């Protein structure tokens, strides 16, 4: 596949990146790899039922302007082989094994929704592996309302079916005019890739991941005070899937973490405000590891437009 320069001059755009695969413990994992080859790579971990084409190209390209960015499919999802795990622990173990197979000794992680559960578990189980952590639209183990993700989502999925709309319109965005506009342009971005698109999730894999999400919501809280690396947390102020209170809770429990809450935004707040989120994420990732994070003065901060 031919490559072209993105707006930042870092090489191939995400929508043109080739589909790659690597075998890890007898399972083939699908991934895409963009951005410069120097520095600490950033691994992207996505939401329930997401495949490679569900990563927002504006966010990936923005981050890849300065960092190597690797987007992956979980086991049993999209073009990855095997059977989808039913626990976050298994997904975290898979991801650690994948990172090792790619030859990385140190990475940054960005986890959205389900990916944020996995990212937290990785940091706690393999603390020396992760340099910096970005958690978006997500919550801690045992967090408020997480075990009800399915109960909250099914009615909105049915509504989407009846109105011939993508479920993410109702799950990721608010019903305000601003939210509806953001949903429309976001969904359009996800269709920019025309060739070599990933496979959609199977119903069985979709349900197995939901089982893992429910188990995460019901398990005992983890000791987030053990997370001793810089952490950036972002969400919308009206997240119906993983209630926004969870983001505030994580920020209070993770020492020195930075929190950004976007106004009139839902679960997909970083997609709605990608033009604001990307510079914030780049600044966060680019800071010296000796610089202390800004801490809780940002709790509840609204980004007004």
Describe the structure.
This protein has one domain (14-303): 3-Layer(aba) Sandwich (Rossmann fold). It has 305 residues and is of the alpha/beta class. It is globular, with a radius of gyration of 18 Å. The protein is built from 10 helices and 9 strands. The chain has helices at residues 57-64, 88-101, 114-125, 149-163, 168-171, 177-189, 203-218, 245-253, 269-272, 274-286, and strands at residues 20-24, 27-34, 42-45, 69-72, 107-112, 130-136, 231-236, 258-262, 302-303. Residues 1-10 and 290-305 have low confidence and may be disordered. Keywords: Hydrolase. Pfam families: Abhydrolase_1 (PF00561).
Question: What's the tally of helices?
Answer: 10
> How many domains comprise the coordinates?
1
Mass-distribution shape = globular
Helix content: 25-40%
Q: Strand order of the main beta sheet, please? A: 1-2-4-3-5-6-7-8-9
The CATH architecture is 3-Layer(aba) Sandwich
Quick one: CATH superfamily? Alpha/Beta hydrolase fold, catalytic domain
End-to-end separation = 39 Å
Rounded average pLDDT: 92
CATH class category name: Alpha Beta
Counting DSSP E segments of at least 2 residues, the number of strands comes to 9
Coarse structural class = alpha/beta
- β-sheet strand percentage: 15-25%
Largest sheet: 9 strands, mixed
Rounded to an integer, what's the Rg over CA atoms?
18 Å
Kindly identify the CATH topology.
Answer: Rossmann fold
Structural descriptors:
305 residues, alpha/beta, Rossmann fold, nine-stranded mixed beta sheet, 10 helices, 35% helix, disordered N terminus, AB_hydrolase_1, hydrolase activity, AB_hydrolase_fold, Alpha/beta hydrolase
